[in-house]
Amino acid sequence: FQGAEPPWLAGLNPEQRAAVTTTDGPVLVLSGAGTGKTRVLTARLAQILATRPVRPWQVLAVTFTNRAAREMRERAGAMIGPMAEQVWLGTFHALGVRMLRRHGDLVGLRSGFTILDADDQLRLLKQILEAEGIDTKKWTPQAGMGLIQRWKDKGLLPEAVPAGDGGREYAGGRAVDLYKQYQQRLAVVNAADFGDLLLHCLTIFTKHPDVLADYSKMFHYILVDEYQDTNVAQYLWLRLLARGHGNICCVGDDDQSIYSWRGAEVGNILRFEADFPGATVVRLERNYRSTPTILAAASGLIRHNKGRLGKDLRAGEGDEAGDAVIVRGLWDGEEEARRVVDDIETRQRAGDRLNGMAVLVRAGFQTRAFEERLILAGVPYRVVGGARFYERQEIRDAIAYLRLVAQPDDSLAFERIINLPRRGLGDASLQTLMRASRMASISLMRAAREAIETDELRPQARKALRAFLDDMGRWRSLADAMAPDELCGTVLDESGYLEMWRKDKSPDAQGRVENLKELVSALKEFESLGAFLEHVSLVMDNEARATEDAVTLMTLHAAKGLEFDTVFLPGWEEEIFPHRRALDENGAEALEEERRLAYVGLTRARKRAIISFVANRRVYNEWRACLPSRFIDELPPEVVERDSASGVYGSGAQGYADAPGGWGRLGGPGSWGGGWGNAAPARVPAAGDTPWQTRDRSGDDQPSLRPGDRVFHDKFGGGTVLAADQGRLEIDFDKAGIKKVMGGFVRKAEG
Ligand code: ATP
Ligand code: MG
User: Fold this and answer.
1) Best substitution site from 288, 291, 299, 313 to test ligand 1's pocket, by max atoms within 8 Å of Cβ?
2) Neighbour-count burial of 35, counting CB atoms closer than 10 A to its CB (0-12 exposed, 13-18 middle, 19+ buried)
3) Where is this region: Disordered (predicted)?
């Protein structure tokens, strides 16, 4: 580019240009929505690769979503070519996984470890709570999981949880011990949860300074988008990596901090200047995205927040004011969905692209009404961030099969599919395996391999289990030779799982069979089963085919960083938005976060924003009268046009004024109800189970038994040991005769 200006600098304003060309030393870009922060970061990546003496893999770039990572890679690729492929670019999670795939052994993870989703995490914790005899109605696994996640977000291992932490009180003060057990159990099943992806990295960095040194030497430059939403663990991770050279550039906007519920701390922005003294701080003021009208609406709204670093957005000089922000009151949710979809169709007929339109909601459940209406109207749409497809029961079952093939120690997958389709391995057999697994601290698969050599299971169950293990062994040996889609087809066929749904007479079975077929096609795009499984666990935001022109439905949280010509913002009602939780809880702060979320929503719009609220909403078969959101009143009246067509304004419409009461469940986590989910075998130990329960925790203090010893077995009663071999025993039972049993299931008889 001698002489001529490189393409990534073209059109940048002086402040943006400074942020791009100041490649060395710490840089903080703190600016409002749409001021070009992400664009600057992308240009900076190109600038570094083109002008600094580094190789692409010596640059680390962090984005908030996988989608944002993809976009940045594509844009940088367009500017500087295929070099962009090799940059370490991704979300914190994806980058953490990448490091753990190399160094996981340092924290006890074996190759091919599984990344658990939220469902699996809960299941695992629930098992621990039940085994500990904790009342899971009072101390829900969800609450426990929330605590563990919060600690992980703060970078705290069980040992490090501070004495005064209120969370310790959970389960009668046993929270930290449960956290510890949860981590041990993850290690046994060779799995990590999302929080671990960074926490394990932090552990490795602290315990193995040589590994940290290698990485911080390798990454000459670090770039971070959406910095306002980093949590403490992420912050520590960045700081450890960047401290040596200090070549770190973070961009963010305190007004868009919307993830404090996931441990994000705006304080990280303030800490930046302290940790990286002499940082260049760049402020961008000109907004390139939205019309002056939309900016005025957004700025007017966010001014109601007190806790701000304070900055205002400026529109471009000479920009047309643009359309007023429309606020529309409607009768009920159905009418609201109808109006939105009518508008979408009208715009489409007028030549607007569907890709330029989005419906942004406060909570995931709100998309349903719009989805139904869009389906009815035949308008293509995608739900971003909701992972519709991969969350379906049959898909999750199929993936559990694949996980087990890839990683036989994945006990959660084993548990999910061991009796799907029915193989005559009922609850009792599964319980036996689970006990064996807990007692010996081995995975269910290994417990199963042991069990088929003994008489612990009924002959029929043993036969079924042996057949299942044989199948698994065969699929596993095929896994290397076969393409992942073929392998998946084979597994679904030979396991009888596909056939199970084919024979099912229920109305949705056909759809499930189609979904399973779609899964097999989806696998075509992957080189290996491992790559696919990683994709499933990480990528939850690329639902629709990127090429298809479609309306986007998503939550406000998922919309961060994106932009659309037309943005619909439905459901602006008190208790929906602001969310009821924010009104109940720690008042002012939570409310300010809701307002930031509204600000994020409005600033996604390039040309127009249409806000709506309804007078009546149906919530779980009950009608509720609704009040317009306070945020509506906070919009500067001069930029708002009230659409009174529906006559809800001033009509005092009270609808069906039910007393509030059922809101608590709004948007609460649903249970998938799949596999073992609901019909889970009782895992609370029976009365006679105390011995294994107490022995279980240490795992290795089982009594060593010798031939001639008298023993007692829960099922077969008293007997005499004939032979002992690697945890398995041959015993002459007084009543049942000679049997092979698993060592953990017998107690030495007293006296
Ligand atoms: P957010 O806070 O919402 O993430 P942002 O600060 O990251 O916003 P970008 O998404 O980078 O902003 O930019 C917003 C829009 O403005 C994009 O369409 C971008 O291409 C455009 N833009 C940014 N800088 C310029 C510029 N100098 N000239 C023209 N357009 C620009
Ligand atoms: Mg951005």
Assistant:
1) 288
2) buried
3) 667-711
Map 323-345 to HEC letters. CCEEEEEEEEHHHHHHHHHHHHH
- Spell out where 170-236 has E strands: 191-192, 221-224
Q: Regarding beta strands 381-384 and 710-713, do their DSSP bridges make them parallel or antiparallel, or are they unpaired?
A: unpaired
pLDDT at position 365: 67
Mean pLDDT confidence for 704-729 = 84
Residues 245-283 have pLDDT tens digits of: 899 999 999 889 888 777 777 778 878 888 888 899 999
> How remote is the CA of residue 563 from the centroid of ligand 1, in Å?
9
Task: Tell me, using a 6 A CB cutoff, whether residue 34 lines ligand 1.
Answer: yes
Residues 690, 693, 698, 704, CA torsion sign: positive
Within 10 angstroms of residue 100's Cβ, the number of other Cβ atoms is 22
Q: How many CB atoms lie within 10 A of CB 481?
A: 8
- In short, whether 604's Cβ falls inside 6 Å of ligand 1 is no
| Cα distance between residue 26 and residue 463, in whole Å | 64
| Best residue for ligand 1 mutational test, from 16, 38, 229 (most atoms within 8 Å of Cβ) | 38
Q: Is the CB of 71 under 6 A from ligand 1?
A: no
* CB contact at 8 A, 29 and 253: no
Q: Could you give the CA distance from residue 115 to residue 413 in angstroms, rounded to a whole number?
A: 11
Structure tokens at 367: 């998309």
Contact 322, 294 (CB under 8 A): yes
Does residue 35 have a known ligand-binding role?
A: yes
517 is in an annotated binding site: no
Q: Which residues contact 481 (CB under 8 A, 6 or more apart)?
A: none
The first and second tokens of residue 33, run together, are 């929505």
444 Cα–ligand 2 center, Å: 45
**Is 256 annotated in the active site?**
yes
Cβ atoms of 12 and 43 closer than 8 Å = yes
Using most ligand atoms within 8 A of CB, pick from 13, 28, 35, 39 the residue to mutate for ligand 1: 39
At residue 488, the 3 state secondary structure works out as helix
pLDDT confidence of residue 344: 97
* Ligand nearest to the Cα of 287, by number: 1
226 is catalytic: yes
pLDDT, averaged across the chain: 84
Alpha carbon distance 145, 466 (integer Å): 35
Q: Is 455:732 a contact under the CB 8 Å cutoff? A: no
Atom 23 (ligand 1) nearest CA: 36
- The Cβ of residue 674 has, within 10 Å, a number of other Cβ atoms equal to 18
Of 15, 16, 37, 123, the catalytic one is 37
Q: How far is CA 341 from the centre of its chain?
A: 29
Query: Measured between alpha carbons, how far is residue 719 from residues 17, 46, 92, 459, 735 in Å?
Result: 83, 75, 56, 21, 8
pLDDT tops 50 at residue 673: no
Q: Tokens in use for 668?
A: 């609460």
